[in-house]
Design a protein that fits this description.
The structure is a homodimer.
Chain A (H helix, E strand, L loop, with lengths): L5 H10 L7 H13 L2 H16 L2 E2 L6 E2 L5 H4 L7 E5 L2 H10 L5 E4 L17 H9 L8 E4 L5 H14 L5 E4 L15 H9 L7
Parallel strand pairs in A: 3-4, 3-5, 5-6
Antiparallel strand pairs in A: 1-2
Helix pairs in contact in A: 1-2
Chain lengths: ~200, ~200
């Protein structure tokens, strides 16, 4: 589609770099922004720019944060002896949304994936091991591995477990099984198999 | 969803003001932008800001333009005696994409809609009438009404036709009929009816 203006074309090209946004949606965004006030458009532009200038990683757990140490790591209400290891920031949000976890996190920023050129030193595994080793007086008792159930996730689980075994810390992983509300008929074979093998005492 | 950072929250709130973008898509955009370089993020922010600062309306046809007079109005290759009246900028792009029209445009910026508070002086009808009246030496021979087939579009067509009738200019409207490639079975009744009433000589 031929656009009547270079400025509009540039904006459409830029907006269509966003994930899942094609040229048509980008044009819709641009024409919407044209109808907004200068203040609204500047607020959007500033907020996008601030992502790169004002946002940092928590130096303890590597979650996104406005401060050098994130609110979860600096909270006195969280259990400091449990660390949940996740792949990325979205996973922290997903677990927080359950309101079932009171411990701390460690965001790896990826999983080991030789095919994508991600090795053990490209993600935050060394800092996790250091954190568990040097955790006195906040001794870490348990590391929960909450990585994806892919080959890369399993490899990362295996490597982390091996690195942590000298420290004697308890390493656990998320329960896998049939989802709440799912019918057995539609559960996939591997999940159903694991939920039988890993059956738990009936809790009335 | 609780976000770990104020800066991220602001960006998500701002991005979710875009049409059709919810909080989840906005978060996806923000996390994508975090992985971009500073240069890429600044380019996006600048292009959005430029929409408000560098873009103007063509003073002849009211299409979006980088210059006071748009490339279509200033082109020597366009037929200056035909003006196609459309509701908005997207309609110009749609007609241009057909490559079937060599005349000029007039963008109304809306249609008459008393229920939305849009009266005859809120859209560019007066400037259209002036343009046709004062078009010497580029006399306008024909005005093509290409407005939507809604009650508002029909009202606007009627009003424009009435305003233009003293000038003696030829006023035409788009052909309505069964779409190319459509089967009659699935054409709506009104369209099919109009295509029978408005049948044209067979052109082998």
């Amino acid at each position: 589609m031929e656009l009547p203006s270079e400025v509009l074309q540039t904006a459409v090209d830029q907006l269509s770099t966003l994930p899942g946004v094609g040229k048509r949606s980008a044009l819709r965004f641009a024409l919407h922004l044209l109808r907004c006030t200068d203040g609204e458009v500047n607020a959007l532009a500033d907020s996008v720019r601030a992502l790169k200038t004002d946002l940092c990683q928590c130096r303890v757990c590597h979650n996104l944060s406005d401060l050098p140490v994130c609110p979860i790591c600096s909270s006195s209400k969280r259990l400091r002896d449990t660390v949940c290891v996740v792949e990325n920031v979205q996973d922290v949000m997903a677990i927080e949304a359950t309101q079932q976890y009171r411990g701390l996190y460690h965001v790896l920023g990826g999983v080991i994936s030789p095919i994508d050129g991600v090795g053990v030193h490209d993600i935050e595994i060394d800092s996790l091991v250091d954190r568990v080793k040097n955790a006195d007086p906040d001794a870490v008792n348990e590391v929960i591995l909450a990585l994806p159930t892919t080959m890369e996730g399993d490899t990362t689980n295996y490597y982390i477990n091996k690195q942590l075994s000298p420290t004697g810390v308890k390493v656990t992983t998320l329960a896998r099984g049939v989802a709440v509300g799912d019918s057995l008929e539609y559960a996939d074979r591997i999940t159903l198999g694991r939920s039988i093998v890993g059956r738990v005492p009936f809790d009335a």
